[in-house]
Design goal:
globular, 0% strand, mainly alpha, 355 residues, single chain, Amino acid/polyamine transporter I
Length: 355
């Protein structure tokens, strides 16, 4: 990402940040927060947004002090090559973990709803090949992919409006009845839904209008918060917290009752479009994860690294035949990843301030 043609417009920067945060979690978020905070799940979503807002605060400071260098360069500058490479390697792991994680989840959804005839392992391999082809392209393609998918997201977020014909206001009551501990537990489960903002620290030097970084970053976080609250509200309004808590993917479930003229199976179309959005998110993690590894493995270019780690990703993904196993592993690792990113990025900020 060194060519002038790689410079990002404001809208491309905005959509990459949004596209990196919004993925598979939006399908399960209503269940996660409702399991603890019930009708007050939206409050837990707000509390959890402290995480990306904190990272944004650090990001604004770092981008003002070092507008032309990303976190990979800064870590080597202030920590030395050896320590920086160790830190950056773990940073890449936090991104690449979600590549095989989301591969497993997407393949499971497809296997259950659309591709009944294909084994899950074959779905993983087919999706993996598409991802590999995508990430072998240049940075500009990734940015455009995020831009195009953003409009699909807008369309998909408007679809749940139809639930207002069938839902009940009683399903979102009572409000403000959850205690503080329940809200915090809900926020803890909502935290991983904001993962992906970390990519900000890799791309801000490549924004062509740096004076708009702060505004566009804040708007991207606000957009994600509002989207999450909107989906939480519509799922509760239509299904109620008792039903939402029992569903794996509440957002998919509410589409099963949609009646669209001339379309017999609207749910399948909805899932297909969301899968496209999620594949874009996986592409982001794969692409930027290899950007980080490229800074460590200086004898290999990014495309070679993509090819080298591809069989490893596929092997790990196909090893998880049970969705419960990958969910359990994810539940254990996500807090560690979030804590690591907070410590890592905060350390960079402190060192920059002292220097």
């Amino acid at each position: 990402m060194k060519k002038k043609s790689d410079l990002l417009t404001s809208i491309e920067f905005f959509t990459i940040i949004v596209g990196s945060m919004m993925g598979i979690k939006i399908l399960t978020l209503p269940r996660d927060v409702s399991s603890c905070a019930y009708e007050d799940g939206w409050i837990s979503i707000l509390i959890a947004s402290i995480y990306p807002i904190y990272l944004l605060t650090l990001g604004i400071y770092i981008s003002k002090k070092e507008p032309n260098h990303n976190i990979l360069y800064l870590s080597k500058k202030h920590f030395g090559n050896i320590l920086a490479n160790i830190l950056n390697f773990f940073f890449s792991i936090t991104l690449l973990f979600y590549v095989f994680n989301l591969l497993v989840t997407v393949s499971y959804i497809l296997n259950n709803y659309l591709s009944y005839f294909l084994p899950q392992s074959k779905i993983i391999i087919l999706i993996g090949i598409v991802l590999l082809y995508t990430v072998l392209k240049d940075f500009k393609l990734i940015s455009r992919l995020n831009l195009y998918n953003f409009f699909i997201v807008i369309l998909l977020l408007l679809i749940p409006i139809t639930v207002f014909k069938e839902g009940s206001i009683l399903n979102i009551q009572p409000v403000f009845k959850s205690n503080f501990n329940s809200l915090i537990r809900g926020a803890y489960l909502a935290l991983p839904s904001y993962f992906g903002f970390e990519i900000f620290f890799l791309i801000y030097p490549y924004v062509n209008k740096k004076e708009q970084i702060k505004k566009n970053s804040f708007i991207s976080i606000l957009f994600i918060i509002l989207c999450y609250i909107w989906i939480q509200f519509t799922c509760l309004y239509y299904l109620g917290s008792d039903v939402v808590n029992k569903l794996n993917w509440p957002l998919i479930s509410i589409t099963e009752t949609f009646i669209v003229p001339l379309i017999q199976d609207f749910r399948s179309i909805f899932i297909f479009l969301w899968i496209n959005v999620i594949l874009k998110t996986i592409s982001n993690y794969y692409f930027f994860g290899t950007i980080v590894l490229e800074s460590i493995l200086i004898k290999f270019n990014r495309k070679n690294i993509c090819l080298l780690i591809f069989p490893i990703i596929i092997f790990i993904a196909t090893s998880f035949t049970n969705i419960a196993d990958i969910n359990e592993l994810t539940y254990k690792l996500e807090p560690i990843f979030i804590l690591y990113n907070i410590i890592y990025i905060t350390s960079i900020s402190i060192v920059i301030k002292k220097s």
